[in-house]
Write a structure and sequence with these properties.
nucleotide-binding; ATP-binding; about 15% strand; ATPase_P-type_domA; P-type_ATPase_IV; 34 strands; Calcium-transporting ATPase, cytoplasmic transduction domain A; about 1300 residues; ATPase_P-typ_TM_dom_sf; alpha+beta
Amino acid sequence: MNSHYDSDDEDLAVFDSSRTPTAGASPYNSTGARPAQQHYASNPDPFANSRGAYDSYEGGQSQNPASYGGGQAANRFGTAVDVSTQSMSKGKSGYDDDGYDPYFDDDDMPNSSMISLPYDRPSYNGDNPSYAGNAPLTQHAQAPAGHGQGQIGDPARNMSMMDDDEEMLQARARLAAMQARKSQKGKGFAGVLAGAKRLLKGGPKVYEGERVIHIGNAERNAENKYPGNSVSTSKYNIVTFLPKFLAEQFSKYANIFFLFTACIQQIPNVSPTNRYTTIAPLSLVLLVAALKEIQEDIKRHQSDADLNSRKAMVLVGSQFEAKPWRSIKVGDIVRLESNDFFPADIVLLSSSEPEGLCYIETSNLDGETNLKIKQSSPSTSALTSPPAISSLQGQVRSEQPNNSLYTYEATLTMGSAGPAGSKEIPLGPDQILLRGAQLRNTAWMYGLVVFTGHETKLMRNATAAPIKRTAMERMVNVQILFLLVILLALSVGCAIGSTLRNHLSSSQMWYLVLDNQTLSARVFVEDVLTFILTLNNLIPISLIVTMEVVKFQQAMFINSDLDMYHPVTDTPALCRTSSLVEELGQIEYIFSDKTGTLTCNEMEFRQCSIGGIPYADVVDESKKGEVFSFAEMKENLENGHETARVIEEFLTLLATCHTVIPETDKDGKITYQASSPDEAALVSGADVMGFSFTTRKPQSIFVKVFGEEKEYQVLNILEFNSTRKRMSSIIRGPDGKVKLYCKGADTVIFERLAAEGQSFTELTMNQLEEYATEGLRTLCIAMREIPEEEYRKWAAIHDRAAATINGRAEELEKAAEIIERDLFLLGATAIEDKLQEGVPDTIYTLQQAGIKIWVLTGDRQETAINIGLSCRLISESMSLVIVNEDNAHDTKDFLTKRLEAVKNSRNAGDFEELALVIDGKSLSFALEKDMNKIFLELAVMCKAVVCCRVSPLQKALVVKLVKKNLKAILLAIGDGANDVSMIQAAHVGVGISGVEGLQAARSADVAISQFRFLKKLLLVHGTWSYQRLSKLILYSFYKNIALYMTGFWFAFQNSFSGQVLEEGWTLTFYNVLFTVLPPVVLGVFDQFVGARMLDRYPELYKLGQQNKFFSVRIFWQWIGNALAHSLVIYVVSVAILGDLVLPQGWVAGQWVWGTTLYLSALLTVLAKAALISDIWTKYTLLAIPGSFVFTMAFLPIYALVAPLVGLSNEYKNIVPRLWSSIIFWLTILGLPFLLLTRDFAWKSYKRLFMPEPYHVVQEIQKFNLPDYRPRMEQFQKAIKKVRAVQRLRRNRGFAFSQTEEGQEHLIRSYDTTRAKLAG
């Protein structure tokens, strides 16, 4: 029997120590078992793998960003990792398991110096020849992205042992015992508790075992009850709406209080008011809130329905038929064409390209713009027609669904059942195509669906839609709690007064028959409840519904704003969650994705320098004579200019030194397939200038030079990686000469130039500086001619290096260093990574508004820095703090030293602007508990932060770190599925919409189509919403306390009997009818400053960040003002009307007095609304004066009708007594004037002697004063000259973003002269 084991496992010490794995041994046993999971630690280079994924044989780690923490791998036995219960300590992977759990609680992060692999060992017995270890890794070890995954094309390896080896049997026994202990431990109370915690957090289902998928056998697959392919991003469904909605509504203290009030109103002899005066308005409030939630969630359901209704071609019999995505099932075979999005997680079976290759774009998943290459198994790549693919039979034993975007393990068994007729094929990350990715530059492909719907890796990375509460809502909730405490204290005080009255004053109140009253707890409690009902309206019952209505209307304003409408994609702004609109005016940090958010993901070849002469596609009028056009370059080449030879070599290099593959369509138009958009831009640039790359064969390429086709033999390709920062091709030209063409970053090219004969170095350097200041991505271009003998000797060295087993990458680099020397500089290229329109201006304006911007991207470090420069996030004056360490110790040491240095310089008065740049690997260490505070403190001191090579969940963790430790409102903006976790983790999530397949917009609170619209969204709509909501809340509390506190003052006069001063329904009408419009109009239409002024003076945005309009202090100032007004209203009204005898000889009585007091208070609060209103519209007139007119018309009608229908008798015959009294009219008009004179005087004093910034801007707006400030563009031009010297020390971004290695063997498999299959 052949046995396979993991050489890293600690338990293998029981085996003979002399038995080490043999390089080159086969990973398969004689019966075709699955590949062994061997991991060699001998290779010192963790990036030596040329296959683009973790390779156990080479000890390498893939170069995709998630290798540093993009999710847990499932083990090779198909057991998905339960990240909520496993205990994985921190090592090079960067996190414990909680770091990868979308439902993770960052209070529970353990600290440990060891790492355990995130899965248990399988049982080891004679029936299972496969074995994978679970060795603890040291702190500096790398936790693999795909531990133990088999790789297609790996050298075969084997290790066999005798079945009766005594030491082997002992090891089996120990391993089996350990497995049993772990299994029992997982089933204990802790395991149950962890499972319950996961369920409470809404975590995904955890699976065990392996998934068996029968190809094209729907009946067999149906037995496993795999979920459908429909996805849902909505908050509610028919079943969950009521419980979820009620839970959310009654998390607000006000609603709980009103529900309690409504209940005690039903108790006989307790309520002094009608039993329905609270439950009716509360029901109305909940109904309005429910309708709003339903309307918003219907939009989410519609968005989901649109996505689930997309069509895909599914194999039915031997033909493909179009079916909606929701109908796709596990086991289906699908056909997709170029630019289609993958509807589910699919295993690639075959494609139109040679050897089953296909290109995919994953920017929607990981933010990377470069195309990835996937390759089907050679066993299925020949199935290129519907009849052939329909003949495929067998099954797939797959890992269970998990959230690791970059790992996959499965075995495809082809043929009939039984060992004799079946063939087992390993499947890995090279074959998996994930939902959310897009097929690019590939005519068609066939694939097998393995995961659908919410089991896809994309959806397993998504978190449940959170219920977000704004800071203002939370503050109001707390203040309501304080008011409830005050209300309870007042009620208890009144109840004590009632008790004292009953026992101390009963003799004076003989008519109340109180002599037999005894102290009773029941009576005391009833008295407390009575006074609670009397004073319950101190909390405005209409506040919640008014806020909901106002927020909804503000969301409508956002949706209908034509300034945020993008006509190109016909996409308006869409506010999906209106409850968060006020937080748009308080944002302090913006976390932005790069690709598709800041950039258009379009590379364009803009300028170049050849032989020291600058050329550009478009020459600015001011630079004519200094910069020449591309057309003039062609003329120089054709007319034999002194630089003609240099131009020819330059363009030949662009057309030959690359890994691009040309595709010619029916019309003869060539499309360039490239794993790097930069490479495609360079080849396209050469095409424009007459050097057209037309054909690629395995050993040569064809270039059409001004119509003449030439063949260039590709001898060697020295590939790009992050260490080399360059790429070279060794080409034998049509003339038979061997030349080395090299392109790369200026720093590495200049140091490899020949010492003599460089005519253009100084000029090229100056032009590189100019390109860098314009934010262009630059490459230096160089070449040298290699003598035949020298090449032959070097080729032997290179072949030996390529054959090296251990340390192959280092040997290849050494070989490259030998030949890449004494280069001749030809020039430089400048590529524009096209920014979205208005991005630099938007970022500059937002920074002026006091907002710090952090860019979190899955793209490369150089690319991210370059974009930071071009979009003005990073300016030339900033010092870059680049964190790029290999282990936790070095990261902590670097961060600590830099933090101390920055603190010392700040203490010394040096406030140099800083920009922090950190890669995903270092970030994984920086987020550990022992250093995340250091990282955060340093990051906060920087004006800009760029995190590159980060995984989707790392983005969310950065947001959570800031959210947890800083009292700041955070906004996250992105366009892809990789941004969803970040968007949901922030207080406000903004998604970029308008492009198909962008899931971020469906999960966001607000969707806009362009980054530049963020400026108006925040500076205008956000500021308005915050100021309006602040005014609405403060005014709502003011108006209620101003009236209802008079009931408390009246208690002292009615001997704490619980009698109310006003008629019961009239008190209810106060909130529901008479004062409902002023707060709505203030909240919807008020503008303290116009939109033009808010855009011109972005500093006004800081008012929201500093809580200038709403804070605890301001809230209680308004409460104090309301208390004072209520006391004055009560005292003055009782003084005037207490013993008043009307002209008819009638005594005024309680209802005349109470109604006069009521109307005086009403006019006071309406006049207060007029005083605080900053803008008067027709709606303001309707709401404020109109409300008083309506009240004066409604009350007489109500007073006549109510007694007739038996609703109320208090107002019987009251109309003639009131409306005919001059004292009544003088009181209700004079009291408000008296009260608000002080308020008006204080407002005028503040404006004249203590003006706020917005007061000044209001004056500028009112009198239309001109703005003499220098424009931003002029200022930027002025400082460019001053900073010219500083630019010399800047790091320029260079134009490489392709997959780092592994391209050569792929492009050499192409022969574009062959006709492609139709599929």
